[in-house]
């Protein structure tokens, strides 16, 4: 997080508040995107990202939440550092299913654990749409689950940034590939993250809509979707969004299955990659849905959620 459909793999492993469903209910046209984005969520606590063996033989375990230092609560790495001024420290840690335990550290030992702790969740995904009327966006098509905490994290603030693809690790049967990317444009924020819901992340778009060369298009209703040819918008090189050919092979309720038929995409990526979650699916000039999953043993095959279902943001 994680799968919505059996035998499928979530594409973003992070790689995330409920907005009123009425915010999108009246949207008639959306701008299909496809840009790769970096996502950062600021958490209201500090946790251990890797197992750490301390000099006294005790362990800080992956997923431990550091709740206190010398009896004083901490909610961020910055506040944690403020307590690292005394020589003898007692940190209190807790995991969800365990009791709180105290660990004694020297000042030097405490500073040595800083590279192994975090107070944010981050990752890479794909921007799905922008609503030109409400100036809100949707991305990913599924919820962000923190890879260490194994749950959707609570967060106090969130941001999205434009990411540039530097390298591709191709997907192979049984071995999903992924995008290697970096944040572009001096970390200029494109928008905030207001909601991390079952069907994606949503928030306010803060950048200039004129920067997008694509125009708003109509949403295709479920009964209009047909088996056969369609397109997938995504970025696999730099920040350039390209259209790639796919075939929709199954329509079931509000979900689709498709096969990548584009020879260039298959040659460069092997099919669907981690990081493609949220890539728009277009058919006959209308907005169909967003990529959400891949078949692990057949990476040329993927799944998508319809835009209409994604806009609900939670099952009814």
UniProtKB/TrEMBL annotation:
Q: Which SUPFAM superfamilies match?
A: PDZ domain-like
Give the transmembrane ranges. none
Q: Where is the secretion signal located?
A: none
Q: Where is the Peptidase S55 domain?
A: 94-316
In its UniProt entry, what is this protein called?
Answer: Peptidase
